[in-house]
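Translate structure to sequence.
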């Protein structure tokens, strides 16, 4: 999932650390992830809004606990140990009218 580049870029998640690790969350869309944020991705699902670049973290445990769809729940449990960073087209902040459904986004997870 992660690739390394020679140049250092600012971490997309925390906008604080510089890192050469990146992942493609959508074809052609790279986000940079530092060690700390990668560690955070072990315990949290991380979504990055493609439109405003806002970052959302949700505890995996909480997300899984709240799921009522057993099929989806099973898929999530399989993903629990993976570091998942995904892209959103629009987040709540840029699309307050629309109802953002994180679960729908996550169905496309490739894990
Ligand atoms: Zn970071
Ligand atoms: Zn947004």
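Result:
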């Amino acid at each position: 999932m992660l690739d390394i580049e020679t140049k250092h870029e600012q971490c997309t998640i925390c906008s604080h650390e510089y890192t050469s690790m990146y992942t493609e969350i959508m074809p052609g869309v790279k986000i940079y992830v530092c060690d700390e944020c990668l560690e955070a991705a072990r315990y949290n699902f991380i979504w990055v809004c493609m439109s405003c670049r806002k970052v959302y973290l949700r505890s995996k445990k909480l997300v899984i606990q709240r799921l009522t769809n057993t099929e989806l729940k099973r898929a999530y449990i399989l993903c629990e140990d993976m570091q998942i960073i995904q892209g959103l087209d629009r987040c709540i902040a840029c699309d307050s009218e629309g109802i953002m459904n994180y679960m729908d986004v996550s169905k496309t997870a490739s894990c």
